[in-house]
Amino acid sequence: MANGWVQASEPMTLGAGAVTLVEGASFCVCAPSGDIAPGGAHGVFFADTRVLSRWELRIDEEAVEPLTVVPKEPFRALFVGRARPRPGRADSTLLVQRDRYVGVGLREDVTLENLSGEPVGCRVELAVDSDFADLFEVKADHVRRRARVEQEAVAGELRITGRFPDGHTRGVRLTSDQEMIAGAGRLAFRVVVPPRETWRVTLQLHPSVDGHEPPPRYPTHRPVEQAVPVRRLRDWERESPEVECDDPALERALRRSRLDLGALRLFDPDAPEGPSAVAAGAPWFMTLFGRDSLITSYMSLPLDHGLAVGTLRALARRQGTKSDPLTEEEPGKIMHELRSGTDTAGMLGGSQAYYGTVDATPLFVMLLGELYRWGLHRDEVDRLLPHADRALEWIEEYGDADGDLFVEYRRKTDRGLVNQGWKDSFDGINFADGRIAEPPIALAEVQGYVYAAYVARAHIARERGDAEVFGHYRDKALRLRKAFNETFWLEDRGYFAVGLDRDKRPIDALASNMGHCLWTGIVDPAKARSVADRLMSPQMFSGWGVRTLACDMGAYNPMSYHNGSVWPHDCALIATGLMRYGFVAEAHRLVRGLLDAATAFGGRLPELFCGFDRSRYEAPVPYPTSCSPQAWAAAAPVQLLRVLLRLDPAIPQGRVWCAPALPESITELTVRGLPLAGGRVTVTRDGVTGLPDGVELIARPRDPLAALEGRPETATRG
Predict the structure, then answer these.
(1) If you write DSSP's letter for every residue of 269-318 in order, what string do you get?
(2) Does residue 524 lie in a domain region?
(3) Do 247 and 211 fall into the same domain?
(4) What is the CA radius of gyration of the chain?
(5) CA 77 to CA 200: how far, in whole Å?
(6) Does residue 115 lie within any of the structural domains?
């Protein structure tokens, strides 16, 4: 506890070797054997509820010995094991395979293969239970058993129902394609497997909410290859750009990103074939998040535009309409987090929708502006533009409540988040000496997002001939940039303050936040060199990435969540900012560090990792409760690809800037099928081919300030 604030609980660790499978808003966490053991964080989750808390396979009352896990798709894994040796034998002759598919519950195909020359007789059992615990309870390791759980064997199937005090119910129905013995807490089969042959059973878990049971994702009456998740992922991969390069680390990271982003998509049940939003990450954030989903969608634009459109639509539907201090909803404000569980008491603000974020609202406008630059269809822009204008009204009326041009945050009640930027841990914003800053706080990166939102709206207005709106937001942007560079700049330190505290004092820690200011372009060019030097200094750059906080700061801890760790999405945006201002060598160093880290993690960048220096350990040190896969970490390699291509479309202006700047380690790079202006183009180190008629290729970097200030387009350094 600090200053009377209670620290948010650390997410429960998943255990060594835990396997996570995800599909939409469903996920499964289990042991390497495939078992889900009670009492921990394992389970099958649907609608933010653990619908299966125990799922343990036994052969003749003995646990299966795990041999290996074969990952397939993000929603599928094959667990391979063996039964205990038969009496009188030294080795097992019974191979056990569990082919598991996750999505609106679970399907599991269990196969026993007899490798001996005589029949094998055995009893196959599955111990089954559900506590219907809310995801927040599981995450915090504080399950309260609020539901009255009933089990009933009916017509060869097992039904488990959780009845809550408020009258709501959650349920699961367990079925099999083989005759089974169903009883309280277990399913059983009497099996004889002929010599050198196999026996197989398909088990399905069908979840329900208040009696409504969605159709299964993997029905037994048709091949798995025709199931919705399989088809969607196959279509996603087919429609994604193809990348060829001679850097194996980049290729591998991009392949992993494509798979993970495909698995994290959220589909509107009322429009399942429409563009999808994106969940924040597994296992605890398989839902729509304002900040995370918007930044992920932004970084994924070279891969797909549907994520951005779907995310904007989903957030627009839930845009604030009233003032509510508990949920922190305000007119025009963009939501922080959406939940669908049963434990509203444990949710932020005590509600399924919570709005306590300061940055999602400007990021919403930023993303729409960026989509417009990439050639989003006019009808879609027209549909979303009123929501962007309401978001800008929130920024001007509620975000900048004291009228000093800066957007601040302060939670409305003790039910909300203390810190409401992306570093939202209770101690994430602090001074150089380690003191925690007190709200209201105006964060540096948030002013950058607001600046970019003003610029985006000004661009749209200019292209549509709306001189009044253009002038208003152009003026707002220029005034904010001037005020920011005067107020946040620490002349004696050579870097920008993290923010301003309640007394308008600069929060003087050296932190990664100002790297986002390079990304958004709010930094005066005369200050950019010093900012780049500080970000890439030994105090900040670990060799794998830029630390969230410099190692000589009072609150530094390389094993903390936000005070010295390395976040790949943070680093990808910093690399974007470095390249934007022409610091090519620095951007290359950061890209290389992240790609080396990705290789060390098997091609998949985690949500974050520890900030220890590369000279201390030969591999990046994992953060124990890091989400994986996590959306903006998955999108980071895609953003790095754009950084190296120096790709900056402005389709409404009839221009595309592209001036690839590849490090020496990459001599060949080709991207085929990159989405742009409703079509597909090819990008190589020589530029872009396949542009629509009337669109000019400009083979130099774009001046980040020229369009706003009305100056001629000129090349930046590098």
Answers:
(1) TTSTTS--EEEEETTTEEEEBHHHHHHHHHHTTTT-SHHHHHHHHHHHHT
(2) yes
(3) no
(4) 26
(5) 17
(6) yes
| Spatial distance between the Cα atoms of 43 and 172, rounded to a whole number of angstroms | 13
Q: What is the pLDDT of residues 121-172, one digit of tens each?
A: 999 999 999 999 988 888 878 888 889 999 999 888 999 999 999 899 999 9
Distance, first Cα to last Cα, the chain: 48
Query: How many structural domains are present in the chain?
Result: 2
Are the beta carbons of 352 and 333 closer than 8 angstroms? no
CA–CA distance, 650 with 371 (Å, rounded to integer): 10
218 and 254 together in one domain = no
> What is the dihedral sign for C-alpha 356, 360, 362, 364?
negative
What CATH number should be reported for the domain holding residue 199? Answer: 2.70.98.40
Which two three-digit tokens encode residue 658?
């592209």
Cα-Cα-Cα-Cα dihedral sign, residues 218, 224, 230, 235 = negative
φ and ψ of 689, to 5 deg: -125, 155
Q: Token pair 């957007």 is at which residue? A: 407
Whether pTM > 0.85 for this model: the answer is yes
> How confident is residue 712, by pLDDT bands cut at 50, 70 and 90?
very low
**Token pair for residue 215?**
């159709």
Residue type, 324: D
Print the domain residue range for 432: 240-698
Q: How far is CA 120 from the centre of its chain?
A: 47
Has residue 713 been placed in a domain?
A: no
Beta-carbon contacts of 235 under 8 Å, excluding residues fewer than 6 positions away, are none
pLDDT tens per residue, range 690-706: 999 999 999 999 886 75
Q: Is beta strand 687-689 parallel, antiparallel or unpaired with respect to 76-82?
A: unpaired
Share of the chain above pLDDT 90, in %: 82
Whether residue 531 lies inside any domain: the answer is: yes
Residue 492, pLDDT above cutoff 90? yes
Q: Are strands 186-193 and 120-129 parallel, antiparallel or unpaired?
A: antiparallel
Smallest CA-to-CA distance from 635 within 299, 398, 372 is with: 299
Neighbouring C-beta atoms of residue 433, cutoff 10 Å = 10
Q: Are 403 and 433 in contact, with CB atoms under 8 Å apart? A: no
